[in-house]
Amino acid sequence: MVKKPSISLDEEVADKATQAAERDGMSLSAWLSRAAEQAAGRDAARAAVQEYFEEFGEPDAETVAAVEHELEQAGFWQPPAPDHEQKRLAAPAMLSAPFQGTESQETEWHETGERLAG
Description:
It is built from 5 helices and no strands. The protein is mainly alpha-helical. Helix 4 packs antiparallel against helix 5. The N and C termini lie far apart (55 Å).
């Protein structure tokens, strides 16, 4: 059996985490678990990059510039389109709208999504 570690948080950090958990509608334990999982994922990604660099070396400035150019051309650093947030918020309603495959329901589904998207 694996012994679970005892966790102790600074009071100010615990207060901030508790408030964040409440805003997200989660228990503190669930919020901390999610935060730890995200942090562990970022750490694993950094370790993988470091391992890659150790094996193959870091990319030269020309390669970095070429990759950054490709990302820029793909719109990676561009701000989202003005209607992006409305469409993002409308997507769950579109997915949860009743749809049985009939033409009238399909039309209603699309009209609901368009109305919510603005």
